[in-house]
Design brief:
Structural class of chain B: mainly alpha
Strand content of chain B: under 5%
Oligomer: heterodimer
Number of helices of chain A: 6
Distance between the termini of chain A: 58 Å
Largest sheet of chain A: none
Helix content of chain A: over 70%
Number of helices of chain B: 12
Number of domains of chain A: 2
Strand content of chain A: under 5%
Chain lengths: 139, 236
């Protein structure tokens, strides 16, 4: 099997190199963008690309190992991609001052509330279902 | 070519600002690992230093973002990357999705209600108040919803990032104070409250937390884009 020998180094590269794997994630994103545009759905291309990748993992068309290193790398450094967006503040000088302080307070208080409500809802439901699970195991 | 002309060259500008952004982020990350204080977060320190540099060199946001937009665009492939942890946690998610749904609905309602009420109390109204409502979601979703409900997508993008910075810090405090038993609750808190930045933080806490935060972030975004027309009806 001649072509097997040609492809093995390629496969090894895909399994080991996180840059190549990141490129593969980029391909999924591009496909997602194209699909989202073509279908006219109000969905970001990244989400469509993620759905595509998940579907391929689930049906066995793509091994998780082929993108895992790249994906972990991207996720670990994701905060970097938000940094340039913060500089948009330069165009909104009105936010430096009392108005900015008010907005900071709103975001801080609201986000704290959101986090507490979400976490408590999930955790209380969790304890509740755990208790039920425990009972059914006993029964 | 003189040095000044070279400096004005768009390609040079792009390279310089991209390098500066990455370098400051890496340094800020090292500093934060050495001294883990919330106000030393890379997402707060790096932009602050860049902003000072831009102001000092009289560089506008448009000039800066023209050269660094490719970094923001990498959020696309980064979103795809969430497929990996979500796939790896699929058994947990299949078993526990009703809990996550309950948390998402409760969290989203709290986000909209508290933002609206606090803005009202502090006398912020009109476009600015509407722009604050979708800020818990990840940027692409938030901008979509903001436009639909009559806010400014541009302002919303700023609020989304601020929510991410504040949320990643607040999340640690909430996590330390609340007696949470499940990793499910810990992940959902970051995913619903502080989108991608929160998810990145959750990912640093644990793989499971990160996977749940990523999934919840995506689902909350989808849910809100679908529900936005309903919210508009309610507000009329």
């Amino acid at each position: 099997m001649m072509h097997r020998n040609i492809f093995t180094p390629l496969q090894r590269l895909l399994r080991r190199n996180r840059l190549v794997q990141t490129g593969l994630l980029g391909l999924f994103w591009t496909a997602g963008e194209i699909l989202a545009q073509a279908s006219g759905l109000p969905l970001p291309g990244g989400i469509v690309g993620m759905a595509l990748a998940l579907a391929l993992f689930l049906c066995g068309g793509l091994k998780v190992g082929s993108v895992k290193r790249g994906a972990n790398w991207m996720l670990a450094e994701m905060l970097l991609f938000f940094v340039p967006a913060v500089l948009a503040l330069l165009d909104h000088r009105e936010l430096f001052g009392l108005l900015g302080l008010k907005i900071f307070a709103i975001i801080a208080v609201s986000t704290t509330a959101v986090m507490c409500v979400t976490a408590l809802t999930v955790d209380l439901c969790y304890r509740w279902t755990e208790r039920d699970d425990g009972r059914s195991v006993v029964a | 070519m003189t040095a000044a002309a070279l400096w004005r060259e768009p390609l040079v500008q792009a390279a310089v600002w991209s390098l500066a952004t990455i370098l400051l982020y890496v340094v800020a990350k090292r500093v934060h690992r050495r001294w883990p204080r919330w106000w030393l977060m890379p997402l707060a320190v790096a932009p602050a230093l860049l902003m000072i540099a831009a102001l000092a060199l009289n560089v506008s946001y448009r000039d800066y973002i023209r050269g660094t937009h490719w970094l923001v665009a990498l959020l696309g492939p980064a979103t795809v990357a969430f497929a990996v942890p979500i796939y790896e946690q699929r058994a947990l998610i299949r078993r526990r999705w009703p809990l996550l749904l309950a948390g998402m609905v409760a969290g989203s309602l709290t986000a909209v209600a508290t933002s609206w009420a606090l803005a009202y109390v502090l006398g912020i109204d009109g476009e600015l108040r509407l722009s604050l409502l979708p800020r818990s979601m990840s940027t692409p979703f938030a901008m979509e919803v903001s436009g639909e409900i009559g806010g400014s997508p541009d302002l919303t993008a700023i609020f989304v990032v601020l929510t991410g910075i504040i949320g990643a810090a607040v999340g640690d405090v909430v996590l330390a104070r609340l007696p949470l038993r499940s990793t499910l609750a810990k992940g959902a808190l970051f995913g619903v409250g502080a989108h991608g930045a929160g998810t990145a933080r959750a990912h640093q806490i644990g793989r499971e937390e990160g996977a749940i935060a990523g999934l919840v972030m995506v689902l909350v975004g989808l849910m809100n884009v679908a529900l936005a027309p309903l919210i508009i009806q309610l507000m009329k």
